[in-house]
Amino acid sequence: MFEAEIKISLKKTVADPQGLTIKHALESLDFKGLNEVRMGKLVRIRLEAQDQAQAQDEVKQMCEKLLANQIIEDFSFKVEQL
Amino acid sequence: MFEAEIKISLKKTVADPQGLTIKHALESLDFKGLNEVRMGKLVRIRLEAQDQAQAQDEVKQMCEKLLANQIIEDFSFKVEQL
Fold first, then answer.
1. Is the Cβ–Cβ distance between A16 and A38 less than 8 Å?
2. pLDDT tens digits along B39-79
3. Rounded distance between C-alpha atoms, residue A19 and residue A14, angstroms
4. What ipTM was estimated for this complex?
5. Is A3 in contact with A82 (CB distance < 8 Å)?
6. How far apart are CA A72 and CA A56, in angstroms?
7. Chain B residue at shortest CA distance from A60
């Protein structure tokens, strides 16, 4: 069994209104010195695979085919054997 | 300047319909051997702080006061100096 932790975030050039809203909310709670807030997604997947390489490959394909919209999002992941 | 990467995920005992939907979608794309898919949030915050300890403390408070709903969510974060 393997566990993948996938981080999906908006590309730097893409506006992030959700992040901006959270930044304003934090500022209204009196947090100071905030420079930027960016929201992303975190997906944890447990899967069966023959080995680490196969698990890595499957997860990469999942990101490319479904999880990330590569026009506006970047993804990175790590896979661990459980 | 510090950058915090905050991971917010549903507690293990909380049902995750969004994760389940993604699991079904992946299966319909012919990915096999999926055991569990859980969705979470990833927040990246850039902030000014006097030192690492102050940055850590601020980010912890942000999580507790706004970012995470601790009844159903767990959070973890790491802070790096830029």
1. yes
2. 999 999 999 999 999 999 999 999 999 999 999 999 999 99
3. 11
4. 0.92
5. yes
6. 22
7. B31
Q: How far apart are CA A77 and CA A58, in angstroms?
A: 12
- Annotate A27-75 with DSSP letters as a single string: HHTT---EEEEEEEEEEEEEE--SSHHHHHHHHHHHIIIII--TTTEEE
Q: Domain holding B61: CATH number?
A: 3.30.1280.10
Of residues B34, B42, B48, nearest to A47 (C-beta): B34
Q: How many domains does chain B have?
A: 1
Q: Report the gap between the CA of B70 and the closest CA in chain A (Å).
A: 17
Round to whole Å and give the CA distance between A24 and B64.
16
User: Which range marks the domain in which residue A27 is found?
Assistant: 2-81
